[in-house]
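Course assignment 3, question 2. Fill in each field.
Student: A.L.
Task: Predict the tertiary structure for the chain below.
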Amino acid sequence: MTTNAPSPAPAKSSFRPQLLLILAIVLLVVALGIWYVTRLGSESTDDAYVDGNIVQVTSQVSGTVTVISGDNTDHVDANSPLVTLNAVDAEIQYERAKSNLARAVRQARTQYYQVQQLEAEVSQRQNDVRKAQDDVRRRNQLAASGAVSREEISHAEEVLKNAVAGLDGTQHALAVRLAMVDNTTLRTHPDVLVAASNLRDAFISLHRTQIYSPVSGVITKRSVQVGQRINPGVALMSVVPVDQVWVNANFKESQIEDLRIGQPVELRADAYSRDVVFHGTIVGLDAGTGSAFSLMPAQNATGNWIKVTQRVPVRIALDAQEVQRSPLRLGLSMRVSVNTQDLSGPVLNKKAPAQPAYSTNIFQNELKDANDVVEQVISANEDRGRDAKALKL
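Answer field:
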């Protein structure tokens, strides 16, 4: 009788799956450990979006639109014309103001000449009074000897009275004229100042019939149409400076403990591949959570309260050259990772900006150009030689 001995199970084949499982677990633990260690010195969020300025283009005067020089998605430079208004009414007002200033200058010159004329008449009247006084005195001296009659003396006294009255009248007339021009020059005369102010207003109103772009950027949200009657302050379109964007990253309140101003940030945009990395810096943490500044903030004191984790907006400045190479649009989603190892930076901004954050220079020459026009009109209607003598300059 033969017995068949059981064949032994292959040890290596049964041990191999267990070894692979153990190795996979070890690799997973090591990967989780590395991930955890790297996460200790950083905070990240995908609740982050590109933000920037949306500069509204508005009119400062009323008018009818005749030309629109740009449309949505067009790039425009600062000081470039965007909208033109019908300028006929403004041109008429401008020409009328120029004529009024010219007339005011000539009338002021006339008043100064009248003062000079009345001063000469006062001098003449004073001479007449002195002559009449001398005549009366001589006749009174001769009256004792009978060489002069009483009638002639009375006549001389009447001449003196008339001379004194004429002097008083001329002095009053001079005082009236001096009240209009006293302590003034041609350019500081009240009538000239009023007319010059009206001309400046008319010139600026005419200049503002051409609406310029306040900044360089891309046109968006155009709502104005040709032929439309617009009023001051109404938004016609917007310009977005695409080179002046930043990121608002909304971190949970449990994540902001180690966030500091100046910490470096790495960002990736959903609009680009993961190979495109943006670098930035934290420039500030907002003064409150997003819900605190919402239009309808939560009313947690009503009794039905459920705790919701709040988020704090963190402003991140981007590298300008990287943004230029890979342009970003407002509202794009971003994934943000902040290196929080350096905790030496401040938590809050306590310094006022050294210079304005944003500005435009499209209006800085309006008054200067208006003053140049005023000076041209005044110079064209004055006689420098005669006026200098009349004004005793």
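Instructor remarks: The first helix runs from residue 11 to 40. Residues 76 and 216 are 6 Å apart (CA to CA).
Grade: pending
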